[in-house]
Amino acid sequence: MDACCLCTPWNLAVAAAVLCVLYVLSKQFVFRKGNPPPGPRGWKGFMEILQAGRDDSLYEAAWGWAEKYGDMTFYTVLGQPICILNSADIVRRLMGSDEYKLLTSDRDLNVVSEFAWYNGKELFFTPYNSQTRQKRTLFHKMMGIYGEGVDKFESVVGNELDRILEEMDTARATGQDIPISQILSRSLKIILYVLVNGDIDPEKLSLDVVDTMDRYDNAVNRMLDMQTLTALTFFPPLRKVGKYKKICDDVTESKIEAEKIMFEDLKSTYQEGKVRGIADAILHFQSQPGHEWLDDENVKGFLTATFFAAHMTTRASLLNMVLTLTHHPEVAQRIQEEIESVLGDRIPRVEDRLSMHYTEAVILENLRYVSQLALSSLRSAREDIHIDDQVIPKGTQDLEGRVQISVLC
Ligand code: HEM
């Protein structure tokens, strides 16, 4: 046979694909340096991970692994080492102790940060460094949920609470189902929009705002799906093809619309010395010495990352609370009694938390009991981490599940 026949583009493509598969499999089976924590290994482990990814059951699989392997589960996906932290103790040690915390503070960029969050110019998916610390200080200053800020926050939330209760009463009176997820999601968007804009005129809270933020929220959430993230991360050409291209285009397009209402409309009407909401608070810092790095993309990053960080998690925790109380009516009853004895008919204030011990305890327990976020990779190991005769290799992604979230809360 002529040797050149073997070099057709088709044969070369097949050979490249085979090499890729062999490379991926070798990463799955080759033993790493040191002694990594236990986890699914070899062919059986590979199939378990594949299955969990295919039928979207990583969470369930992770709980099984936690029982089998103890404090940490270590495995690799397409050559990427991953370590799930399974107990509060190990999370405290790795993320909170002086010995390890600097090694686990980085949060790597991912596809979503690239498309939606200005390639790390926000305060979530960033390596931990002096600028990150500066950004955190700025975030706390800009939120301003203290002093007069609390009164404003209470009034915004109080109005929304009235509106939600009215909507629920109408649905109940007319025998309709109460779409609690949509109601909460819409309300949270309104509250966040008002906090960013400082605009509390209900007339201006047109449906457009909620729809625009809904589109952006849904587009980013579709990209955050574990399978989609894996496909877009490991096979970048897919970003230009079929359904993956649509997912990417939706994020890019909905982001442009969201930027208009969350940033451009505000920047164009901003007046130095007048702070309407948190967008103005951060725009003010753009002209302050020492903040030269705070360009427009950083401001947009701050605002959109805050929107997602606040919206996704709060919506999930409220929905989880409703779900848990549905299963524990006796707890709901005790909360109701506390509300009636402390608040009566008036709207709650932030300071009421101090007198509502039972309700506060249920909220904290619920944060511990149910995961508020999908299992997704947040922190990464900056160096090899030696812990209890085991080594978590540099570059390992730490998946944060319900344990870490409850410890942080
Ligand atoms: C129940 C509600 C919430 C939950 C469960 C939650 C959970 C989390 C978690 C797990 C992290 C990552 C920490 C890590 O790196 O391991 C985080 C970070 C963050 N969250 Fe929340 N969050 C909630 C509400 C909010 C709200 C309301 C806001 C904003 C108003 C917010 C803003 C942020 C920001 C800015 C970060 C990054 C902080 C930094 O790196 O300094 N979160 N949150």
From TrEMBL:
<dbReference type="InterPro" id="IPR002401">
    <property type="entry name" value="Cyt_P450_E_grp-I"/>
</dbReference>
<protein>
    <submittedName>
        <fullName>Cytochrome P450 2D10 isoform X2</fullName>
    </submittedName>
</protein>
<dbReference type="InterPro" id="IPR001128">
    <property type="entry name" value="Cyt_P450"/>
</dbReference>
<dbReference type="Pfam" id="PF00067">
    <property type="entry name" value="p450"/>
</dbReference>
<keyword id="KW-0479">Metal-binding</keyword>
<comment type="similarity">
    <text>Belongs to the cytochrome P450 family.</text>
</comment>
<dbReference type="InterPro" id="IPR036396">
    <property type="entry name" value="Cyt_P450_sf"/>
</dbReference>
<dbReference type="InterPro" id="IPR050182">
    <property type="entry name" value="Cytochrome_P450_fam2"/>
</dbReference>
<keyword id="KW-0408">Iron</keyword>
